[in-house]
Each structure stands twice: as C-alpha cells, then as structure tokens.
Amino acid sequence: MAKRKSLIKIKPKKYKVGDIVKVDFIVIHPMDTGMRKDKKTGKIIPAHYINDVQFFYNDQLITKMIVWESVSTNPYFSINMKITGPGKIKVVYKDNQGEVHEKTKKVKPKKG
Amino acid sequence: MERRGFLKGLAGACALTAVGAPTISLAENKKPKSPNAITYKKALEIITKGKGAKDSEKINLIVPEIAENGAVVPVKVTVDYPMDPNNYVKSIHVLATKNSNARCADVFLTPLNGKAYFATRIKLGGTQEVVAVAELGDGTFIKAQKSVKVTIGGCG
After folding, report:
1. What is the mean pLDDT of the segment spanning B3-22?
2. Which residues of B touch A68 (CB under 8 A)?
3. What is the C-alpha separation between B156 and B143, in angstroms, rounded?
4. What is the pLDDT of residues B82-134, one digit of tens each?
5. Which residues of B touch A78 (CB under 8 A)?
6. Which residues of A touch B (CB under 8 A)?
7. Which of A110, A62, A65, A66 has its CA nearest to residue A89?
8. In degrees, to the nearest 5, what angle opens at C-alpha B49 toward C-alphas B43 and B54?
9. Residues B101 and B123: beta-carbon distance below 8 Å
10. Pairing of strands B141-152, B66-69
11. What architecture is domain A6-107?
12. Which one of A36, A61, A70 has the shortest CB-CB distance to B122?
C-alpha cells in the first residue's frame, strides 16, 4: 500500500464554539480515469481513483461523498462544519484499488 | 484518351485514400471506454429517482466562464436553504453533461454541516455545461447549470 500525503485545513484559523468553519481536505492521488495512455509504452493506464470520502467529527459522521474519476488529480474537497467543542476531525478515504487511508486533525476552539 | 485515363486513375486514388484514411485513424485513436460510462440524462434519472429536477435560483453554482485547462476546473456550490435537524439539504451532486462519466461527485450532508456548501476541482473533456443538483428536505430536487468554455481538454 502506497503512502499518501494528505492535508486537512480549518478556515479561518481562529474559531469559537458555535462557529461554522470551512474544512478543506487535499490528498495527493493520481486519479487515473482508465482512458489515458502511457506515452512511452502505449498501454492504457488502469483506472485508479478515490471513490469514497467520509468526514467524521468526534466519531460522528458529518458528510459522506461518493467520488468518480472526473474529479481532478490531487483532489480537493471542501465542506462546512459546525464546531461544537474540542475534539478531532477524521477523514477516511478509499480508492477503487482497495487502498484505505485516514487523516486526523485536532480541533481547538478558542475561548471567549 | 490519355487525359481521361489519368483522371479516372486520380479519382480512384482519391477514393482509396478517402476510404483508407479513416479506418487507419480509427485504429490508432480508438479511445478506451470509461469503466463507469454513463450519460448525463441517465445519471440525472438515477439521482432524482425518475422525478426530475427543477431549475432554481436557490442553488448558487460558481464555475469559471472560460477554463484554460480542462484538467482543473474549480467548482463551488452553495444552497440557500436552512439546515435544521428535520429539514435540511440531503445531498449535492455535481455533474458534467458531456464527460463520458457524467457524474463527478455525490455529497451526502447532515444537519451538523451548518451550511450547505461544497467545493472541489473537476476535469472537463471539452466545452460543456456543469450541473449542480440538490435534494431538499421535502424530497424535491432542484438544479442549476452553467456552461464552461474549455480551451484544452482534461480527459485523455
């Protein structure tokens, strides 16, 4: 299983309990459609794309996505989320070749 | 007689190249089919379960008018609708009308999202329309569409 780089960003950086924040998730992934040819060998590159992304906040499912190959290389997904308290955001993503990865980020709302 | 013969030969040669050329180019440029190929009409039917979707101004779809690179087209969708626990936007779907697989992403939201918002980047094979479909709490579907001009295709 290949190692994948991914990133979770919360925007804005400073937030309080009750705020609605933007959560960005970016992962380095080829997202091959299965329709492109390798220019050197002339063979078709097999389809390899992320097909399932799930956002959890304190182990509660917030958003589920079914993704198809028409999403760009190194995909970027952004959703909104309501901050209810400290905890962590977890993103689990699967691809059509059976890879399963996850990424977590701590949520630290500011007091006041 | 000589000229006639020459012209006949020329016509024959032309016909041969005309017939021969397309078959050669077909064999060379035969594009593999997408594993999940589906047309826009069929995809919309599956998503809305045959109900169909109405055009609405509640969906705000933000796409560039002209995309220089079809491989990376940013898409932003917001739905002007409350996110109460009992009445919320259940899902947002992003479709591209002329891609071989018209579906791009299906997003299933919950009331914990706070706002119905989704953004991503998609590939477009050519100039076409990007469609956003949303399912509301009462089971109805609404959609919005915008055309994007692509100067370089992104698929294949």
Report:
1. 58
2. 36, 101, 103-105
3. 28
4. 999 999 999 999 999 998 889 999 999 999 999 999 999 999 988 999 999 99
5. 117-120
6. 20, 22, 33-37, 44, 47, 57, 60-73, 75-82, 84
7. A62
8. 80
9. no
10. parallel
11. Sandwich (2.60)
12. A70
Q: How many CB atoms lie within 10 A of CB B61?
A: 17
Q: With beta carbons under 8 A apart, name residues in chain A contacting B112.
A: 57, 60, 62, 81-82, 84
Nearest-CA distance A77 → chain B (Å): 5
Residue A8 tokens read as 């979770």
Cα angle B99-A94-B62, degrees, rounded to a multiple of 5: 45
Q: Could you tell me the residue ranges of all domains in chain A?
A: 6-107
Side-chain-side CA neighbours of residue B60 (13 Å): 9
Write the CA distances from B137 to A56, B81, B107, integer angstroms: 22, 9, 15
Task: Look up the ipTM and state it.
Answer: 0.89
Contact between A29 and A78 under an 8 Å Cβ cutoff? The reply is no
**Beta-sheet pairing, B116-122 with B73-79:** antiparallel
CATH number of B40-152: 2.60.40.2470
Residue pointed to by tokens 């055309």: B147
Spatial CA neighbour of A74 closest among A11, A23, A32, A22: A32
Query: CA A106 → CA A57, A76, A80, B55, B109, distances in Å?
Result: 10, 20, 16, 40, 22
